[in-house]
Amino acid sequence: MLNNEDTNISENSQISLRKATLADMAFIRDLFYSEMDEIVNEAWQGRFRWEGWFNDVQKALELESHIVQLIQFTNQNIGFLWMNKEDRNLWITAIVLKKEWQRRNIGSKIMTHLVGECRSDGINTIELGVQKNNNAALRFYSEIGFERFDQVRSARTDLLRLKLINLED
User: Fold this and answer.
1) CATH label of the domain that carries residue 51
2) pLDDT tops 60 at residue 169
């Protein structure tokens, strides 16, 4: 079940998801400034305001409809995941790994886990937005079956969708 509880990603895996708390905001801020600031500022042409976004994260921590988790490797924080369910859709607001943890199959394991959980919960689609200049993320999501379905022009963001009802088991 998709929920905000602590979860191991797979059996014998050292990768887990832990419910984020307000005490984790310093890690979340540092992660986004170090990994996403350059990409987001280029896409938004310097108009993006992180403080408003961090306020939204803090509010989401208190909402039952939002799932806000830290990605951990042997209890060490290595990333962040924020999502929410609406009807038969899962929207991923953010998923970010520290650069040194990227390209280690962790994102693939997390997405495989999420797809399995979504299927169990009767969710038909997973959607997310990717900055058009984030070529690595666009390539990653394309390789696992996400397709572009719209664009937010002001943010230079491609909206991507993975239709679970079309996937083979």
Assistant:
1) 3.40.630.30
2) no
CB-CB neighbours of 31 under 10 Å? 21
* Residue 36 included in any domain: yes
Residues 55, 37: Cα–Cα separation, whole Å: 16
> Tell me, what's the pLDDT at 50?
87
Q: pTM for the whole thing?
A: 0.88
Rounded to whole angstroms, what are the CA distances from 43 to 50, 131, 152, 153, 155?
13, 6, 11, 10, 6
Question: Residue 168's CB: how many other CB atoms inside 10 A?
Answer: 3
Contact in structure between 19 and 13 (CB atoms under 8 Å): no
Residue 129 belongs to some domain of the structure: yes
Q: Name the percent of the chain in helix, strand, coil, to the closest 5.
A: 40, 35, 30
Q: Where in the sequence is the domain holding 73, given as residue range(s)?
A: 7-166
On the 0-12 / 13-18 / 19+ scale of CB atoms within 10 A, 80 is buried
Gap between the Cα atoms of 132 and 134, Å rounded: 6
Mean pLDDT is lowest, of 37-51, 74-88, 110-124, 153-167, for 153-167
- From residue 121, how far is each of 3, 33, 76 by CA, in Å? 10, 33, 29
